[in-house]
Amino acid sequence: MENIIVIGAGQAGASCVAKLRAEGFEGKITLIGDEPVPPYQRPPLSKAYLLGEMALERLYLRPEAWYGENGIELRLGSTVDAIDAAAKTVTLGDDVLPYDALVLATGSTPRRLPANIGGDLGGVHVVRTLADVDAMEPAVAEGLRALIVGGGYIGLEAAAVARKRGMDVTLVEATPRILGRVAAPETADYFRELHRAQGVRVLEGVGLDCLNGVDGHVVGAILTNGEEHPYDLVIAGIGIIPNDGPAKMAGVEMDNGIATDSKGRTSDPNIYAAGDCASLPFRGQRIRLESVQNAIDQAEAVAKNILGRDEDYVPQPWFWSDQYDVKLQIAGLNTGYDKVIVRDGGAMRSHWYYAGDTLLAVDAMNDPRGYMIGKRLIEAGKSPDPAVIADPESDLKPLLK
Ligand code: FAD
């Protein structure tokens, strides 16, 4: 093994190259990214960075110099032109780079509002890259009116930031409730109330009919309930699509993203995938995880497997979201739950997802202890009696024994 190429200089790509070096790989590593900046964290983009509370330098996963110091060639602002999987080469402009192992860590692209309803107007934004956030930031300003389309975590975080910055905020969610894809009604109820208490207009079962523009810039919107309002800024948080361009060039199998096995390997034994772009087997189904935990852990497993360690990647999902003064921490994956046990400790609250007697996941709101204990229980495969969980006075720590 002499040459390893990683395409995608984001969370997974950066984690993979760092792990390769940490595991003692001494050959050539090339990290190719189409953004002009070194790998950075995306979560603060819809939180502290958009709020203006985090400096740009703190977003970077490592200082740019680190890559050179560790013999990692960074090719930024570069898009791959071709991949020849038989010859094991990647073409980048005039360069044809050989590889022994190739890692696809290309992340995902946000869905955009269609152009035929005004999605291409100025003032209509998505939140994925540093460039996206820098472009919208001046319009996230006191006294202006924001329409947030989509009631998932990105939309809710954007609404919280816009509100904190003094905007008049409306959030529309076309399906019957916010967080419908990712959380139980109990968690949705909690965040709906939180946003309403902060003055956000949350409309569920209401979509965007079309945007109105003047001189190419959005000035308002007509909603599917017939309401028409002026808006200065529109932010769409309506889901993501895995970036599959390089995977298609390489001809590897796709199935809800780039299909990998439990080692992170694709249908081509020399090509691996990790992060948002990759799907993997989990509890008898194929899933794609859109989180920092998955990007790091899967990429590190890939690095080890490239070096012959033969390790299965078993996701231990965790996630977080910051909205106003609430920190939501999620452990586990709630897919397949049939009941939710609410542990209502007042300011500290947690929602525990069960399938039958099996604990699957926990949503903890301002309850780091509930989160940590829930996470450890899930990782240990332990399922506490729901009656104990439901009693906010009960001590959870003994459950870990
Ligand atoms: P990315 O970090 O997106 O990196 C992929 C990189 O590959 C990008 O730079 C992309 O431009 C590049 N690329 C794509 N195609 C090519 C190509 N053909 N050639 C070269 N380069 C290419 N997760 C959490 O766990 N908690 C959170 O609170 C949270 N908040 C988030 C908030 C926001 C606003 C966003 C956008 C995401 C958030 N996430 C959060 C999700 C998390 O950031 C992603 O799951 C994670 O970044 C995925 O890492 P990745 O390396 O797969 O993709």
From TrEMBL:
Q: Which UniProt keywords apply?
A: FAD, Flavoprotein, Oxidoreductase
Give one Pfam family, short name only: Pyr_redox_2
Could you state a single Gene Ontology molecular function term?
oxidoreductase activity, acting on NAD(P)H
Q: Name one GO cellular component term.
A: cytoplasm
FAD/NAD(P)-binding domain residues: 3-299
Origin: domain of life: Bacteria
Residues of the signal sequence? none
Known cofactor(s): FAD
Query: Where is each Reductase C-terminal domain found?
Result: 318-400
The name under which this protein is listed is FAD-dependent oxidoreductase
